[in-house]
């Protein structure tokens, strides 16, 4: 099979004069953008490829070696270096701004990283702590010479060879999980998933101008070049994922005609549109407005549909990319979705989970039907790499779905210990936090549970071994817990951290709600039972957020 960059280069060459990327100029107000053509991006990636070929070969590296690229994720040049390194034949492990050297060392131990290339912003961190491998600051794009001599051929690969490595948005025991993407996977994303997700393009063929969804260090935005170039579309950069309404309208002036947003940010724009005719008109003119990451408020779904806004739910994961989407032609079925055409998945009944144990508002939204796991057999083109599959015959995502009508599925939460929390509703592995508390505080805490699904921060409920009979004793317990988990806590991504005594709640031993059969603490029930306390905590969120 051809290297994934071979078809990226082929796609870039089809539309040399079209605009591929609109880079936001953060120094100016109101927002404005600088355009980069397909031809210009190809020239930039080839210059970076030539630079890294000479530099890394001089350090003893060879094609197909894993190279860590530690970037801020907010610059056009980040994309040029990702694709330039891929063109040079290296396997890039993309590292985001939340990383630090001890975490990178642990990641490289798993992925076989041979060198670290880092943004100038991280120079001090690299100099303070020797990584023990070749390291190199990423040069400014404008400092690179023109391409000369010719680049080496792309290496030979198999469909299941690793092309890029990204990471989960949460950590497991303080380490983000590497998620390798294969050449077969990337080809599926570019040539099957993206064209069939963007139904407005399929229907009228107009080139799309689409916003990025977050950092270029994350897979959804980093791989945009691969799938946008294949379809001849353009990416417009936002100043932040939850951009303000003036920026939205400015992007519309720049040609924005399709969007991908996290559900809370779409809700914010819909709320503004209720009283702002200009915003409402701009939304109605969109070819398609995807929302993902969480369920949309039912009132928002109904209102958007009534107003004729082409809102579609999208289900995607770091491991599988896009899988389910609401058909534009089927009105009024939000949040229902169908499997994207060309994707091979199966819905299999989940085991041992009651509707009453669902998180968030999923329990209220179910219609009483069966709950299903989403399963990817090994022959699926977007089945995850073998190193992260959780079944010998394929992979289950851990998300639950209900079939509300034949072939139409609604997301109903998760069946494991991961929740979504923080400003960006990123994943958090609650069990690893709970396990660490129980280990490090074994003489203090009998049991505990972490809650915070769809909330700005996590909260730890603990059942102390010794009864707490005063505010002073409770304060001492919380201080001791914070001290003992400090090292572990520092390795977590900010949205997972317990930074303050305000995030710890002490309750009577044995009082947290449990399952009948196994006696496990029920996370959602604990959250519901203590909703008043949690409301008070989150009202004071600004006093403890990192």
TrEMBL record:
Determine the domain of life of the protein's source: Eukaryota
User: SUPFAM superfamilies, per this entry?
Assistant: Acetyl-CoA synthetase-like
Q: Coiled-coil region(s) at which residues?
A: none
Residues of the AMP-dependent synthetase/ligase domain: 14-328
Molecular-function GO terms, alphabetical: medium-chain fatty acid-CoA ligase activity
Give the family this protein belongs to, as stated in its UniProt record.
Answer: Belongs to the ATP-dependent AMP-binding enzyme family.
Q: What is this protein called?
A: Acetyl-CoA synthetase-like protein
Q: Which organism is it from?
A: Mycena albidolilacea
């Amino acid at each position: 099979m051809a290297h994934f960059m071979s078809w990226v280069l082929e796609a870039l060459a089809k539309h040399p004069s079209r605009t591929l990327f609109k880079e936001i100029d953060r120094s100016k107000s109101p927002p404005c953008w600088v355009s980069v053509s397909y031809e210009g991006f190809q020239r930039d990636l080839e210059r970076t490829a030539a630079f890294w070929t000479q530099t890394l070969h001089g350090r003893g590296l060879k094609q197909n070696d894993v190279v860590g690229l530690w970037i801020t994720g907010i610059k056009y040049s980040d994309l040029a270096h990702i694709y330039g390194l891929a063109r040079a034949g290296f396997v890039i492990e993309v590292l985001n701004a939340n990383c630090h050297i001890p975490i990178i060392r642990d990641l490289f131990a798993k992925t076989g990283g041979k060198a670290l290339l880092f943004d100038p912003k991280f120079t001090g961190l690299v100099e303070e702590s020797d990584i023990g491998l070749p390291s190199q600051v990423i040069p400014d794009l404008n400092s690179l010479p023109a391409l000369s001599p010719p680049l080496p051929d792309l290496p030979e690969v198999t469909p299941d060879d690793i092309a890029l490595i990204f990471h989960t948005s949460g950590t497991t025991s303080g380490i983000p999980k590497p998620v390798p993407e294969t050449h077969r996977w990337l080809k599926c994303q570019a040539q099957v998933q993206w064209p069939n997700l963007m139904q407005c393009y399929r229907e009228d063929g107009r080139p799309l101008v689409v916003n990025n969804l977050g950092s270029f260090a994350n897979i959804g935005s980093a791989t945009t070049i691969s799938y946008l170039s294949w379809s001849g579309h353009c990416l417009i950069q936002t100043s932040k994922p939850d951009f303000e309404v003036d920026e939205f309208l400015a992007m519309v002036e720049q040609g924005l005609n399709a969007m991908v947003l996290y559900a809370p940010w779409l809700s914010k724009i819909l709320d503004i549109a209720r009283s702002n005719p200009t915003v409402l008109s701009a939304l109605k003119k969109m070819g398609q407005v995807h929302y993902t990451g969480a369920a949309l408020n039912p009132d928002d779904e109904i209102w958007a549909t009534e107003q004729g806004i082409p809102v579609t739910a999208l289900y995607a994961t770091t491991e599988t990319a896009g899988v389910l989407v609401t058909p534009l032609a089927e009105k009024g079925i939000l949040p229902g979705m169908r499997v994207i055409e060309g994707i091979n998945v199966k819905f299999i009944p989940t085991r041992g989970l009651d509707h009453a144990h669902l998180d968030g508002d999923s329990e209220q939204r179910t219609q009483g039907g069966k709950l299903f796991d989403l399963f990817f057999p090994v022959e699926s083109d977007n089945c995850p790499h073998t190193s992260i599959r959780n079944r010998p015959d394929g992979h289950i995502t851990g998300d639950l779905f209900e079939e509300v009508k034949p072939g139409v599925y609604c997301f109903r939460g998760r069946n494991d210990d991961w929740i979504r929390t923080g400003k960006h509703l990123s994943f958090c592995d609650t069990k690893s936090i709970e396990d660490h508390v129980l280990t490090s505080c074994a003489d203090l805490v009998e049991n505990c549970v972490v809650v915070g699904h769809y909330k700005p921060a996590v909260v730890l409920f603990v059942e102390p071994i010794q009864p707490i009979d005063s505010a002073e004793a409770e304060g001492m317990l919380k201080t001791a817990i914070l001290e003992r988990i400090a090292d572990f806590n520092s390795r977590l991504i900010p949205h997972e951290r317990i930074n303050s005594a305000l995030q710890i709640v002490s309750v009577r031993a044995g009082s947290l709600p449990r399952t009948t059969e196994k006696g496990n603490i029920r996370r959602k029930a604990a959250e519901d039972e203590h909703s008043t306390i949690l409301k008070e905590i989150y009202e004071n969120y600004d006093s403890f957020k990192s």
